[in-house]
């Protein structure tokens, strides 16, 4: 993640009748970076991507690509390729013609066309499928054709709009790695829209978390996980996400206290909080205990291996001081607390992913 | 004990036939039987009081081929189809592309284009009769503004068929536009955006993506237009009655004349059989040859 900003948005606004869309978004995407735009549906992340692509024009603000002001330029001038959620393959054209389409309309020489086609086909493992129509391909193959179309364009910037959402879970993992590999190999700058925080966390150098048309938090996946700026960020990132407990229940009125599931554990002696187990989800490597407490939401305990708990049982919870993250109860924004150490930089066990998180506390097994 | 599998198979067969029956009855009564009856009639002589009907083989067809009016009418119909079909399809496509784009008063435009289709052909004929009337018709009045002489569009053999063609194009284009409009709306907007990002101009997008995706619709419209060019003759009764001197007479109008004005049923039947054969061959050509080169989604 080095280099100068390749794509820059300056106070970009695009709304429809004062609603939806994005308001006043500024963003800098470094050259060669993999940046995810993450957020719940309707938060404006696709609009943001369309503003960068030029398929949508901003009401206000400025879009710069490679240092040039592109705000008023059409999509074809911006030197970018795009992978659509629906793949947008031309149904009447064969795989070969789909990949060649852009070069044909740009009147690229025949020899160059053929060379690039062969290269893209080999790179994405589409050999033998060149003559097929999109309808005769599987979802994963269509996805690869869409990627090949982006690759042959030779543009340094690639926009992806939820490219994995139409694939089944297993395929999603392998294509995810393919995309990342492709980006590395070609040195592409990728802007990737998704609503799936696992995708965003595992792929990106930088995550842009959006909420209601505005940027909530920008940072590395690790920073987002360890230092959420608000309860919204805390509850959006992580699987399962951060639990939020009202401060009054823990002797800190006026605050909300957030805790990652892997830091919760059954209390050995005096519990910090006592709740009732309302659901037990066995995941193989870990068991998730969903705990009900009147002053808490999203209280999920992740204990390694199989845990022998039954719904309806009372459970005492240990909420380690050093992992408590404080939020303001009114604004939901993170609070700096001098006594608290919640900084990801200083925490030794800062995990990137809850599943792989080290477990500093004894389990019930 | 009866064989259960056989029993079930028979029940399936009965079920199938029951489902087929309504369509079969309707088609037999109104399509198959009349076709066979027409073919049968065309092989017999015209019966009079003194000479009863007798089998004459292909004599009626021979008589038809010797009739110069038949050839003139066939030529008229070919010209009529050759002019009205491509023009109305091209016009329909152009109107659909326009009415599908983001323009002000879009639904008004669509409705305006579709209005001629809603009018009965007889009403449209009367409307155009007023347009064409020499002296005080709309066309002549507009022409007079520019100092053009009065033209009797329907009254002279050189212009009559063209005047009839114009009415048909006006009537059909709006109808075909609806099919194109429906087809255009099934093309996902993603495709346009993908083409845009690839640098395709509007024209390149239309030619390489939209037109190929509209091929199934074009084929359907082509079949309909072809059938209509033979079938739709109501306006002739109002505008020209086939005249002057058969210049605007079309096949079906001539068949009608033979059957109900000259009371020569065998001649009409023979002509009908010929028309059916030609239309059948055309439909087969379209479905078996053009169809293969068409992409269906």
UniProtKB/TrEMBL annotation, chain A:
Highest taxon of the lineage: Bacteria
GO CC, alphabetical: ATP-binding cassette (ABC) transporter complex, substrate-binding subunit-containing
Pfam families: ABC_tran (PF00005), TOBE_2 (PF08402)
UniProt keyword list: ATP-binding, Cell membrane, Membrane, Nucleotide-binding, Translocase, Transport
Ranges of biased composition (kind: Basic and acidic residues): 334-356
Residue ranges of the region described as Disordered: 328-365
This protein's record includes keyword Nucleotide-binding: yes
SUPFAM superfamilies noted in UniProt: MOP-like (SSF50331), P-loop containing nucleoside triphosphate hydrolases (SSF52540)
GO molecular function: ABC-type transporter activity; ATP binding; ATP hydrolysis activity
Domain ABC transporter: 7-237
UniProt record similarity statement: Belongs to the ABC transporter superfamily.
Designated name of the protein: Carbohydrate ABC transporter ATP-binding protein (CUT1 family)
Organism: Rhodovulum adriaticum
From TrEMBL, chain B:
UniProt domain ABC transmembrane type-1: residue ranges: 74-284
GO biological process, alphabetically ordered: transmembrane transport
Cellular localisation: Cell membrane
Primary location group: membrane
Transmembrane helix keyword on record: yes
Membrane-crossing segments per the record: 12-33, 78-99, 111-131, 160-182, 209-227, 267-290
Similarity section: Belongs to the binding-protein-dependent transport system permease family.
Descriptive protein name: Carbohydrate ABC transporter membrane protein 1 (CUT1 family)
Gene Ontology, cellular component aspect: plasma membrane
Pfam annotation, one family: BPD_transp_1
Lineage of producing organism: Bacteria, Pseudomonadati, Pseudomonadota, Alphaproteobacteria, Rhodobacterales
Entry keyword annotation includes Lyase: no
Key words, A-Z: Cell membrane, Membrane, Transmembrane, Transmembrane helix, Transport
Record's signal peptide: none
């Amino acid at each position: 993640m080095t280099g100068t900003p390749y794509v820059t948005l300056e106070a970009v606004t695009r709304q429809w009748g004062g609603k939806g869309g994005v308001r006043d978004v500024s963003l800098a995407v470094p050259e060669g970076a993999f940046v995810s735009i993450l957020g719940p549906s309707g938060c404006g992340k696709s609009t943001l991507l369309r503003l960068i692509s030029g398929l949508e024009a901003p009401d206000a603000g400025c879009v710069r690509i490679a240092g040039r002001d592109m705000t008023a330029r059409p999509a074809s001038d911006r030197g970018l390729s795009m992978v659509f959620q629906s793949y947008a393959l031309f149904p009447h054209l064969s795989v070969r013609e789909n990949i060649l389409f852009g070069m044909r309309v740009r009147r690229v020489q025949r020899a160059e066309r053929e060379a690039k086609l062969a290269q893209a086909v080999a790179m994405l493992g589409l050999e033998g499928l060149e003559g097929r129509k999109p309808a005769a391909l599987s979802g994963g193959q269509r996805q690869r054709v869409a990627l090949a179309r982006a690759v042959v364009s030779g543009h340094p910037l690639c926009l992806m709009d939820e490219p994995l959402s139409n694939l089944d879970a297993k395929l999603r993992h392998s294509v995810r790695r393919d995309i990342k590999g492709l980006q590395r190999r070609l040195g592409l700058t990728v802007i990737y829209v998704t609503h799936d925080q696992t995708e965003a966390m595992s792929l990106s150098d930088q995550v842009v978390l959006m909420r209601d048309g505005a940027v909530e938090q920008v940072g590395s996946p690790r920073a987002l996980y360890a230092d959420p700026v608000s309860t919204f960020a805390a509850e959006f990132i992580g699987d399962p996400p951060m639990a939020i407990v009202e401060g009054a229940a823990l002797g800190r009125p006026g605050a909300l206290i957030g805790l990652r599931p892997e830091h919760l554990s059954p209390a050995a002696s005096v519990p910090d909080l006592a709740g009732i187990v309302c659901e037990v989800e066995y995941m193989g490597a870990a068991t998730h205990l969903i705990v009900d407490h009147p002053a808490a939401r999203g209280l999920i305990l992740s204990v390694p291996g199989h845990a022998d708990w039954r719904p309806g049982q009372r459970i005492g919870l240990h909420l380690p001081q050093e992992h408590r993250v404080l939020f303001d109860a009114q604004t939901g924004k993170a609070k700096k607390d001098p006594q608290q150490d919640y900084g990801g930089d200083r925490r030794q066990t800062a995990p990137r992913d809850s599943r792989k998180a080290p477990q500093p506390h004894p389990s019930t097994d | 004990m009866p064989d259960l599998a056989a029993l079930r198979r028979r029940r399936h067969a009965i079920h199938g036939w029951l489902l087929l029956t309504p369509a079969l009855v309707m088609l037999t009564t109104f399509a198959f039987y009349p076709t066979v009856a027409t073919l049968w009639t065309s092989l017999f002589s015209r019966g009079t009081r003194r000479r009863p009907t007798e089998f004459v083989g292909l004599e009626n067809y021979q008589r038809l081929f010797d009739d110069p009016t038949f050839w003139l009418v066939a030529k008229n119909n070919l010209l009529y189809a050759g002019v009205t079909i491509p023009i109305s399809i091209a016009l329909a496509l152009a109107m659909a592309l326009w009415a599908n784009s983001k323009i002000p008063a879009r639904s008004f435009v669509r409705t305006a284009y579709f209005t001629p289709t809603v009018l009965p052909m007889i009403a449209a004929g009367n409307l155009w009769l007023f347009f064409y009337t020499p002296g005080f018709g709309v066309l002549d009045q507009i022409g007079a503004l520019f100092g053009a002489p009065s033209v009797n569009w329907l009254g002279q053999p050189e212009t009559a068929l063209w005047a009839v063609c114009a009415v048909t194009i006006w009537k059909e284009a709006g109808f075909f536009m609806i099919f194109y409009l429906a087809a255009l709306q099934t093309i996902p907007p993603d495709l346009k955006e993908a083409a845009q990002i690839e640098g395709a101009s509007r024209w390149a997008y239309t030619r390489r993506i939209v037109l190929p995706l509209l091929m199934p619709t074009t084929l359907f419209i082509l079949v309909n237009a072809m059938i209509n060019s033979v079938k739709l003759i109501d306006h002739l009764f109002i505008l020209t009655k086939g005249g002057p001197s058969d210049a605007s007479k079309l096949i079906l109008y001539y068949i009608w004349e033979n059957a109900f004005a000259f009371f020569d049923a065998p001649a009409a039947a023979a002509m009908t059989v010929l028309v059916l054969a030609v239309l059948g061959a055309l439909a087969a050509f379209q479905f078996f040859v053009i169809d293969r080169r068409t992409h269906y989604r």
